[in-house]
Structure formats: C-alpha cells, structure tokens
Design goal:
By secondary structure, the protein is an alpha+beta fold. Helix content is about 25%, strand content about 20%. The chain is globular.
Length: about 450
C-alpha cells in the first residue's frame, strides 16, 4: 500500500506561505487553495481581506473556462456510446450553423479556426439573452483562421459543443451535466448558478487599494464555455476522475485520450498545448493537466500531475491580480518535490506467457540496438539502448499484432514475422525490420545483406 500520511509540517508551511503571498501580492479580496494527494485532500487553506471570513472548501467561486472540461467529457461520452465520431462534421448532428464543416475533434481541441470571442458587446458582462441564437454567438465572420491549421482558443466553439450535447441528448446542457457527471462524482456544490456560501466577484483598482463589485451574468448559450460555480472540494473530486477515470462517467482510455495533445503548441509557447478539453503545460520535467478559468470578478485554476498523483486548485474573487495558474502549479511542485510519491512494491507477473517472454531482449534495426520489454499490464515496450531514439509502448490486438500507443510509432503496427518452421524471423514495425543480430543474414531483410558479411580494414 502507498502512504497517505499527512503532509510534513515544513511542506504545509511552504504551501501556506505561497498562498498567503499570492493573496497579498495579488491584492485579491480572498483566495482559497487545496491540494490532493493519492486521491485524498491533504491540505487546504485560505486568505481573506476580512478577518475571520476566509472561504473554505465548501465556498463557491465562478470557475470560468474550467467549465469547458466538463463539456468535453459530455462530448466524449456521446462518442463512447456511438452517437457521434470525433471526426464527424458538426453539420451531421447540428445543422445550420454556417460552420458545419468543422469536426467535433477540431472544436474540442480549439483547432477549428473559430474566433476567440463572440461579436460585441463583451459576452462575459452581458446577459445571455443578448445572444438568443447560435448565429448571434458566431457573428458574420466566425472563422479567423483556416480550419485545422493550428490552435486558436475559441469560446464560441464550446458553445457549439454544448448545443451539440443538447441536440443529441434532447435535454438542457445543465441537466445533462448534473445527471451524467456531477451526481455520479458527488459534486453537489458545482452548479450553473451561485448557491450560498459563495464569494462575490470584485475588481481591484490597479493603482489604489479600492474595489468595485463585478456583475455575475447568466451566460445563456455561452454557458458550456464558462458558466459554472464550484468549490475546491468538488474540483479535486473532478481532478481525481480526470487522472483515473470512473466507469460511471467515462472510461479510463477516453480520459487518457483527452490528455493527449490535439495540436502542436502555439509559436512562442513551447511549454504548453491543448488536448480535448484539457490544457497541457510543462513545468520543468513535470507535465501538468487541467484548465484555467476567468470571468469578471473571478480567477480559477485546476492542475494535476498523473505521475506524482498530486492535484491543486486555486480560486480567487478578483478580476485580475493573483497569478492563480502559477500558484496552483507551484503547489503541486511543492508537494511532489518535498514528498515524492512512494512507488508500489515490485511484484512479478501473475503468470508467464512463454511466447511473449521469448520476444524480450535485444533487437536490432540495422545496427541500432533496442530492447523489447514485457510490461506488467501485458503490453510491450521498445526502447533504444544508446542515445535518444524512437521509444514506444504497444498494446496487443486480437489478431496477434500490436498497436503503438505513443511517440513516433503511435498507431503503427508491430508484427511478429515467422519463418517457415515457425521460428521468429524478425519484427516488422511499420515496415522497419528488427532482427536478433545486426543485419542478420538469416532474416528476411529488404535489400538483403552483402554476401561477404562483416569485414575489417584489411579487405
């Protein structure tokens, strides 16, 4: 079993110092944060400008675009049920939008070329009734880039996905969300409208220590892009689901699919990219997944590290000021670096597959040596033994071949090619031949092997 002991006093002190500094230097009325380790809340704290009135894990804040991740999960559920394919054009399921050629995949990953925002007036500070139809959300020039040519974040894109969910479910987005995600995960404090106790949204003057209340508008059709209110406790439940999956909501393989990059990073931002409803950022050697969010009066971020099994949420009720994304990332880093995850005990496989065992060991692609390993989940892993190279993991297919899961060989097929007597002749990986010896003369290598064989300087 892994350790789930309380955090060390020094770790708790470091977390408190980071949150206190964020609230003070960010000049926000209040800030609440929490850290989860091994699926359990390990620490939480809050700071407030009003003594004795700090928010806690049950206090709602608006979470802005973190809402998009919930909408993406609903779309992935539709895909898993066979009601749509990610490569389907929107027109197939939601006709009449004037951008029906965009695919579901492009909308999920912000690769459709749609405008970032709706036409004026500023949608976050106006009633949703201002835009009663999708045409009002998209405007006369919905596309600002060619579809599929790169990442361009789009709030209207997630309005389209929310409408897609409503069309295929025959019910309101908020009701589908409650039924299919919030209730199964026990997220009772995540709602489209505020329910007490909740924070009020404020704008803090950039040059003076004075505040102005911000409006909290109902976003109407834009709700799937940013409507939700939530708490640190609920969002950490959501983080645990995004890390492990939950068969009541979405299978693990689909959650893993959401975490894969959907497009190359934007130029100048090589440390970040986007999956399917999830932001992906690099902080040193660590990959963080989750989402940030903002609406007038509120800032929010959820980050989690699958490898470290640590998640952090930071919520604030200021329009700008505290860098909650950086703070959440640092909270994960503080815990993961100070108290690294304790690995599970090594255990042998429950049973031996002699044919697979015989495939393990060194294989040569020409003269480059690789090692093939049998993994605990029954998969295979191919890694170069010298320098950087094309490593990949493989999953077995029913027909006896293997599918690459990552890197250069993702989606490629690995085959075990046998000679006439049944012995293994070579491995075929996307047409590349791997043999037991460098350019094995007894194997079927395309182009053959020089009959003179290996030779030294004296020919």
């Amino acid at each position: 079993m892994t350790s789930s002991e309380a955090l060390l006093p020094s770790t708790r002190r470091a977390l408190l110092h980071r949150v206190a500094t964020a609230q003070s230097e960010g000049r926000t009325p209040s800030l609440v944060a929490a850290v989860q380790r091994e699926g359990k809340i390990a620490w939480s704290s809050a700071r407030s400008c009003v003594d004795g009135h700090e928010p806690d894990g049950d206090t709602q804040f608006r979470i802005g675009s973190i809402t998009k991740t919930f909408t993406a999960v609903l779309v992935m559920r539709l895909r898993d049920e066979g009601l749509l394919d990610l490569d389907d054009p929107l027109e197939k399921h939601l006709p009449g939008t004037d951008v029906g050629h965009l695919t579901v995949f492009q909308l999920l990953g912000h690769n459709g070329g749609l405008a970032a925002e709706t036409p004026a007036p500023w949608w976050e500070r106006t009633q949703g009734s201002t835009r009663p139809e999708l045409a009002d959300v998209l405007g006369e020039r919905p596309l600002v880039h060619p579809a599929g040519h790169g990442h361009h974040y789009s709030n209207p894109g997630y309005t389209l996905l929310g409408s897609l969910v409503e069309r295929l479910r025959g019910d309101a987005w908020a009701k589908v969300l409650r039924r299919e995600i919030l209730e199964p995960l026990g997220m009772d404090r995540t709602t489209p409208e505020a329910h007490a106790p909740h924070a009020g949204g404020w704008a803090v003057h950039p040059w003076a220590d004075v505040m102005l209340p911000e409006p909290a508008e109902d976003l109407g059709l834009m709700a799937p892009a940013g409507q939700l209110w939530s708490t640190t406790t609920d969002l950490l439940r959501f983080a645990a689901f995004l890390a492990e999956g939950d068969k009541r909501v979405l299978r693990t393989s689909s959650v893993v699919e959401m975490r894969a990059p959907a497009a190359p990073p934007e130029a100048g931002d090589w440390a970040g990219t986007y999956g399917l409803g999830l932001q992906i950022v690099r902080r040193g050697s660590r990959t963080l997944l989750g989402h940030s969010g903002s609406l007038p009066g509120f800032l929010a971020t959820l980050w989690f590290s699958v490898e470290d099994d640590v998640a952090a949420v930071v919520l604030s009720n200021a329009t700008s000021g505290p860098l909650v994304g950086a703070v959440a990332a640092e909270l994960v880093q503080i815990v993961a670096d100070a108290e690294p995850r304790i690995p599970e005990p090594w255990r042998p496989l429950p049973e031996v597959d002699d044919e697979l065992l015989a495939l393990t060991g060194p294989w040569y692609w020409g003269t480059q040596v690789h090692a093939l390993k049998l993994l605990t989940d029954g998969g295979l892993e191919l890694q170069p033994l010298r320098g950087a190279g094309r490593a990949a993991r493989f999953r077995a297919r029913p027909d006896g071949t293997w599918t690459g899961l990552n890197g250069y060989y993702a989606g490629e097929t690995l085959k075990v090619v046998r000679a006439g007597d049944g012995t293994v002749d070579h491995l075929d990986l996307g047409s590349f031949v791997f043999t037991r010896e460098p350019y094995d003369r007894s194997a079927a290598i395309p182009g053959g092997v020089d009959e003179g064989g290996w030779r030294g300087l004296a020919l």
